[in-house]
Amino acid sequence: MQKRFVSIWFRQLTTDWFAIRNSELRNIPFVLSSTLRGRMIVVAANAIAQSKGIHSGMVLADARAEVPHLKELDDKPGLAEKLLKRLAEYCIRFTPYVSVDLPDGIILDVSGCAHLWGSDEQYLTEIVNRLTARGYVVRAAMADTAGAAWAIARYGSEPFVVKKGNHVEAIASLPPEALRLETDAIERLHKLGLRQVKDLLSLPRYSLRRRFGPRLMQQLNRALGLEEEVIQPLYPVISYSERLPCLEPIVTKTGIEIALQRLLETLCHRLQREEKGLRTACFACYRVDGKTEKIEIGTNSPSHNATHLFKLFEIKIDTIRPEEGIELFVIDALKVEEISPEQKGIWKESGSLQATQLSQLLDRLAIKFGSNRIHRYLPDEHYLPEHAIKKASSLEEKPATEWKVERPRPIHMLSPPEAIEVTAPVPDYPPMNFRYKGKLHKIIKADGPERMEQEWWIADGRHRDYYYVEDEEGKRYWLFRSGHYETDKHRWFIHGFFA
Predict the structure, then answer these.
(1) What pLDDT is attached to residue 99?
(2) Which residues in the chain show pLDDT less than 50?
(3) Cross-strand partners of 442
(4) Are residues 347 and 475 in the same domain?
(5) Which of 367-406 are b and which e, b meaning 16 or more Cβ less than 10 Å from the residue's Cβ?
């Protein structure tokens, strides 16, 4: 695919931001100032102030002498970088590859994106119009290399869309400043009479490298496309992502559902081909006003079932507020795992945990009630019942030990065990009765004791003697005595209830 880049230049980035916040500043000259070595220096000037000869780096007192009615505001350190990051986030609606280009620009890798808007010209016009509508004065250009686009946006003239393969001719007549060089290198080039990029192209490369160093050659090669320039995106680009721009803003729930279905079908078809399934996904809706609405889902096992995934998103669709309308829908598979085709295991017995229906049911319950409400437990290598189980991280986690089934265990266990009052005869005999929550239970059947102790590497508690008992109402309980009967420190507890 032919690479294409867009460079956006915000000519008065910070002063535009102040004017957006205060409309009275639009029609008067004003500057942003900061203290440097004990003097007030102009950091930025708006277009009106620049037309009167005010420029950045100028002493504020001199600027006031030039324009007596000049308004001065305090500069905000780091403002330009914060603004560029916000604007770069806004431009993600045009391409996922967006990079901040300090101090006053943004670079977009738009390869394969422009056709969604009709043509390169319509695409670039849409970007400029959107940013202009937000109150910023911008210039933008599109070319085959990021360096050429940067050069044309700042030093070129119309057309700002360079046809494919014509970027060398487009920058040939531009000054050497268009190559993003340091000030001292530019001054040396002008002193030698090299005032256009084409003057450099006619010189031997070894001479340029020897006289000006590798930096000039690197920037020249990048602009010409002889050396690749890596664009670091603002956010890591998701490998499994699908985008759906809209011809008209979507404001209805039905429209959002249709967009989600189309994106899921496309994404799941790709995942199915590659034998993968998603575990977490994000559905993002980019609104006309620049804000973004997002909903996320998670699954217990990898899935590429578009119908099932849509049902998970559907539960949260009501939280999306389209307001004036949504112009772009994006779905990202944030976590993807390998998934084996069902045909490979068609002759194998599948346990209930591997059943697709169970996994999908748990997904829907987790989305509706919260993942913290659903737990799976596995046996753990401990003797005491409250420590003999642990929470599983997923349906796929295998038990490290087997369930102990040689002895009956209650269906409902108390955590922690609750103290009770017990009447018992001689040692090792089951209790005759016990009082629990104010009610006296007379025991008519009992079995035990079953002794349990801490593991030898822990051994920080007393042993327990467990009894299975049944009262006169036919209800069965699990009781234990902590400590030896002969000691005064022994205590009785109820630990569980049988069916």
Answers:
(1) 95
(2) 343-349
(3) 433
(4) no
(5) beeeeeeeeeeeeeebeebeebeeeeeeeeeeeeeeeeee
CA distance 128 to 392: 52
Residues 209, 246, single domain; the answer is no
Residue 3: inside a domain, yes or no? yes
Residues 182 and 110 placed together within one structural domain of the fold: yes
Give me 226's structure tokens.
Answer: 């002889």
- Judged on CB neighbours under 10 Å (0-12, 13-18, 19+), 65 is exposed
Who's near 59: CB < 8 A, 6+ residues apart? 39, 40, 41, 42
Q: Does one domain contain both 102 and 203?
A: yes
Domain that holds residue 277: 241-366
Same structural domain, 96 and 157: yes
Residue 233's nearest CA partner among 14, 5, 16, 1 is 5
pLDDT tens, 281-302?
999 999 988 889 999 998 888 8
Tokens for 95, please give them.
């391409």
How far, CA to CA in Å, does 176 sit from each of 125, 185, 200, 467?
A: 27, 9, 9, 91
Q: In this structure, are residues 286 and 93 in contact, taking their beta carbons and an 8 Å threshold?
A: yes
Read off the DSSP letter of residue 59. Answer: B
In Å, how far from its chain's centre is CA 216? 37
Torsion-angle region of 213 (φ positive above 0: left; ψ -120 to 50: alpha; else: beta): left
- What pLDDT is recorded for position 236? 82
Specify the pLDDT at position 267.
94
Over residues 444-477, the pLDDT tens digits come to 999 988 888 877 666 666 788 999 999 999 999 9
Residue 227: how many CB atoms within 10 A of its CB?
14
The H or E element that residue 209 is part of is helix 205-212
Backbone angles phi, psi at 316, to 5 degrees: -105, 0
Nearest partner of 263 among 246, 241, 279, 278, judged by Cα: 241
d(CA 446, CA 424): 12
Question: Which pLDDT value is given to residue 41?
Answer: 94
Q: Which two tokens stand for residue 190?
A: 């002008």
Nearest 5 degrees, angle CA 282-CA 284-CA 288?
175
Question: At what angle are helices 253-273 and 306-314 packed, to 10 degrees?
Answer: 140
Decide: helix, strand or coil at residue 11: coil
